[in-house]
Structures are given as structure tokens and as C-alpha cells.
Write a structure and sequence with these properties.
five-stranded parallel beta sheet; alpha/beta
């Protein structure tokens, strides 16, 4: 079983010698040898950008905790926590350009927020009020495609769009302000799905401008990553001829720099890249899961000492960030959480017609038949349930 101790010791089955890490677990600037090529990018970050990384992580954790509480109170059907994975997500999302396309799985809450999606739209999905939550074609949502709970299928969608970018000559023109790229998020469990490997086959064959961003949070529900693969998952990308990088997913600076570089290379026409971010799911897989059945408290405690938010806070404090800054972040996080609670309570129930909307792009006789059946069924109850 992978623990943080193995990440800082000699390379084992989960870690490659080329691991990219910039900040150590205590928030000290201590880049590994593999991080050296990325330091110029990090040096170019100003205080506002660095503090923005911290703000993103702290605010989304408050939102995530509130959403978990809302599910426990019966306001949501399900909630997939992102607790512990904030650095991998924030760094990679901030690395993307506005014209890039984002394909999340179902845990990338801060990625969607950074791209402009209203967090209440995620709540609506998990409350069962909508099929998708938001319109990916609406510019305000930053080319962010909807969540998918079908493991790995989003990698096929991302590769298909990437192939379209190649065919339409919307990448590799040499104009970084116009060229587009795709980043797709998936987990260690999804990496064992056939869809992911099929997506990699086509991505490599068509040289799509795509980054496969694997968040290895160590557990595919109750199955440890060591059971899924005897070798580091980053090597799977190598098998398809993709340049592949492994980074410390609890280090937001490493996530940013590696992803920025990979996206720039893919966008330029150099073909797809693969990233494995080593992180840890501190919460349950979803609120229907009980991780105490398969994880030890010692394991969780050891990863808690590598908390990505505390790591970045220590780094910023060392750079001279003020108490006022951290207080302001805490206030914003509390306000966002409170806003979500209030708006969730105001959502109400499901409009019967909503379940038939947007299933197909055009009117479909099967949907009409199902709508009529439901109306007749509900009307058959005494008092008419409609």
C-alpha cells in the first residue's frame, strides 16, 4: 500500500525516480531534480497568482465540506468529496488557456469553478434535478464539459474532440492565442477501464492536442492502486508513445508547471501527453462509501501531514503573506459555503418535465411515449399526483 513515506523514500512500485515536486511536505521550496526544467515557469509567478492558488484550494474545500453536510442532511442524493485533491486540480486548471476544453469526471469541483461554472450547478446534478448541470457551449462555462459517472468514458469524448481539433486545424498553427488543447481528468480506478486505453490509442494515432490527467488518489473505492497495477500508472502513457510525467499531486506548483508545459506542447501540435498526479482521497469515495472498512487511521493520518492547503499556506507564510490575507480567504470560503447552503435549500424538487428535457438534441418519439406514460401513471393515483 502506498503511503507518503514511500513518496519521500527510494522509488517503489508507485513512484518513479523522475517525480516532479517543488514544495516539500512542510511547504519548503525544495525542488527535486526532475522539477528543474519547470522552475522558470514557477519563478514567473507573482504573489497574486500564488495567493490565488491558495484561495482556490481553501474556498473549494469549504464548499466541498458544505456539500457533504448537505447530503448528510438529505438535501443531495450523493456527493463525491474532493477533500485532499485540491492541489492537483487547482494547479492543472490554472494551467489551461481560455480556449482549451475541459473534460472532468465527477470530482473536479474546483476545476469547474475556476472555468466559470456556478457550483450550484454541480449541486443540481447531485440533487437529481438535471441530467447535466450546465451547458458546455455557453461561454460563461469556459468550455467545461459535464460530469460523467461512467468511469473513463470522458477520455473517449475528450479524444474525439481532440481529433476534431486536428481535422479542423485548430491546433499546431504556431499561434498560442488561437491554438486549442484538451485536458481530461480521470482516476486510478478509471485508468483500468478499456475506454481509457482505447482513447489513448486514438489520441496517439491522431496526435491529438490532449493531456490525460490522472489523479492517482490511491483507492478505486475499496481497491488499492497496488492491486490494480504492479508498476507506476504513469508508465501506461509511455506504452502508447506519449511523453509521461509523474508529479506530487499535493504540490500545487508542480501541478501547475507540469500541466502548463504539457498543454503548451500538445497545443503546438506535438501530440498527447500523460500526467500522473500522486495524491490522496482524504474523504470517502462518495457519501455512500465508508473508507474505515478498508483504510487504516494511520494511513490517513500520514497523508494528512502532507495536506496540500497547509503546505501552500506554509510556503506563502514564508514568503511574507499577511494574516489579513488568510483571514480574507477564510471569510470568502465561509461566504461561498453559506451561499451554497442557502441556494440549495431554495432549489425545491424535480419538475416532472425536466427529466425529459435535453435527453436528445431533437424531439424523439420514445421520449414522448415515456412522458405520456408517466402522466397516465401518476394520474392513476387517487387525487392525481401531478
Amino acid at each position: 500500500m502506498t503511503t507518503p513515506e514511500t513518496l519521500s523514500a527510494a522509488p517503489g512500485p508507485a513512484e518513479e525516480s523522475g517525480l516532479v515536486r517543488v514544495l516539500d511536505a512542510d511547504g519548503r521550496f525544495a525542488p527535486t531534480a526532475a522539477a528543474e526544467p519547470y522552475l522558470a515557469l514557477i519563478d514567473g509567478l507573482g504573489d497574486a497568482e500564488l495567493e490565488g492558488f491558495y484561495r482556490d484550494m481553501a474556498v473549494i474545500r469549504a464548499f466541498d465540506r458544505q456539500a457533504t453536510n448537505l447530503q448528510r442532511q438529505g438535501q443531495l442524493a450523493l456527493w463525491p468529496p474532493s477533500f485532499g485533491q485540491e492541489a492537483a486540480q487547482v494547479g492543472s486548471a490554472r494551467a489551461a488557456r481560455p480556449q482549451d476544453h475541459i473534460f472532468p469526471s465527477y470530482r473536479e469541483h474546483v476545476v469547474t469553478r475556476i472555468r466559470g461554472v456556478d457550483p450550484i450547478d454541480i449541486i443540481r446534478v447531485m440533487r437529481g434535478l438535471t441530467h447535466g448541470g450546465w451547458d458546455p457551449t455557453d461561454p460563461k462555462n469556459g468550455n467545461t464539459h459535464i460530469y460523467t459517472l461512467v468511469l473513463g468514458s470522458q477520455t473517449l469524448h475528450a479524444t474525439g474532440l481532440g481529433m476534431g481539433l486536428v481535422f479542423d486545424e485548430r491546433c499546431g498553427t504556431g499561434d498560442p492565442d488561437r491554438d486549442e488543447a484538451v485536458i481530461v481528468y480521470y482516476g486510478d480506478g478509471a485508468s483500468s477501464q478499456g475506454d481509457v486505453h482505447e482513447a489513448m490509442v486514438f489520441a496517439a494515432s491522431y496526435r491529438t492536442p490532449e493531456v490525460f490527467f490522472l489523479q492517482n488518489n490511491q483507492w478505486a473505492i475499496s481497491v488499492p492502486v497496488a492491486t490494480q497495477s504492479p508498476a507506476p500508472l504513469v508508465r501506461r502513457g509511455d506504452g502508447y508513445g506519449m511523453p509521461s510525467i509523474q508529479l506530487d499531486g499535493n504540490d500545487v506548483l508542480a501541478s501547475y508547471a507540469v500541466t502548463r508545459t504539457a498543454l503548451d506542447e500538445a497545443r503546438s501540435g506535438a501530440g498527447p501527453r500523460a500526467i500522473e498526479a500522486l495524491t490522496y482521497r482524504m474523504g470517502a469515495h462518495t457519501t455512500s462509501d465508508d473508507p474505515t472498512k478498508y483504510r487504516t487511521s494511520d494511513e490517513e493520518a500520514s497523508w494528512a501531514r502532507r495536506d496540500p492547503i497547509e503546505r501552500m499556506r506554509a510556503y506563502l507564510t514564508g514568503r511574507g503573506a499577511s494574516d489579513a490575507f488568510f483571514a480574507d480567504v477564510d471569510a470568502e470560503a465561509a461566504a461561498v459555503a453559506d451561499d451554497v447552503r442557502v441556494r440549495t435549500s431554495a432549489l425545491g424538487g424535480l419538475d416532472r418535465e425536466a427529466m425529459f428535457a435535453h435527453v436528445y438534441t431533437e424531439p424523439h418519439p420514445l421520449i414522448d411515449e415515456q412522458r405520456a406514460w408517466l402522466a397516465d401513471y401518476e394520474a392513476s393515483f387517487e387525487g392525481d399526483a401531478s
